[in-house]
Amino acid sequence: MRVLVKDVMTRTVIRLQKDWTIKKVVQLFLDRVIDGAPVINEKGMVIGIFTKTHLLRAFDMPLDTRIEDLMTKNVIPINENMLVEEALSIPVGRLPVVNEEGLMVGWLTRTDLANAFLDQYQSAIGGLESILDSLPDPVISIDRLGVISFFNQVAAELYGLERDEVIGSKINIEIKDYWGLLEVARTGQTRLGIDSAVKGVRFRVDVIPVMRQENLMGAMAILRQV
Asked: How far apart are CA 80 and CA 22, in angstroms?
């Protein structure tokens, strides 16, 4: 799914004027509980960024000093239609977002980016679970501690258990680890074609490691009826 900057950016942004004084901005930062904001000109275009770091550098300066004299001027604005992945590669904590006319329409922070990728990840996981749930074979997944993280409906019917009661619990007397799930979850070594019987039904079981970005997260057993 293509996610654009405008889909995740913060739209309600405090905008500063270049002729504002340190005193005025200090009070604004305190009142709004923010630590940085863009500086715009009379046309609404971004010309700088002013943060608490600038305030610290101005510790011994007169309070009527204009922020134009202190702000960062080499600003990197990004277009609202840029892909989030592209914005992530820019090594700046705060990025002003502009439209096609160059006018500021939002503010993108690392928090916004993190939330965007979390949403994508959760959506992807939800989609994967839907696919596994639709399989005609029982599927059971555990984490590296042996806690059941996935138990599809077919597995629930096979064992005569409620899914909500099983997920989040450790493998127990009802769901014996016949197939070395724990070993695979801890070693990452795949085990295929294991002959097994559950509730009098014979299965051939494949146990595979569950990986996330090359990190071993657990193991999954897929039971195929013989």
From this structure: 30
Helix (H) or strand (E) holding 158: helix 153-159
The amino acid sitting at 109 is T
- Catalogue the long-range contacts made by 127-136 (C-beta closer than 8 Å, 24 or more residues apart): 135/222
| pTM (whole model) above 0.85 | no
Query: Cβ-count burial of 198 within 10 angstroms (0-12 exposed, 13-18 middle, 19+ buried)?
Result: middle
From the first residue on, what is the mean pLDDT of each consecutive set of 10 residues in the chain (226 residues)?
81 90 93 88 89 87 92 89 81 83 85 64 58 80 89 90 85 71 90 87 88 81 87
Q: Distance between CA 106 and CA 4 in Å, rounded?
A: 13
Domains located in the chain, CATH noted: 5-115 (3.10.580.10), 135-225 (3.30.450.20)
- The angle at the Cα of 83, spanning 82 to 84, to the nearest 5 degrees, equals 115
HSE-up of residue 55 (Cα within 13 Å, Cβ side):
18
Question: Would you say 104 and 95 are in contact if contact means Cβ atoms under 8 Å apart?
Answer: no
Pair 87, 78: CB distance under 8 Å: yes
- Residue 192: phi, psi to the nearest 5? -125, 150
Of 65, 68, 32, 63, residue with least CA distance to 50: 68
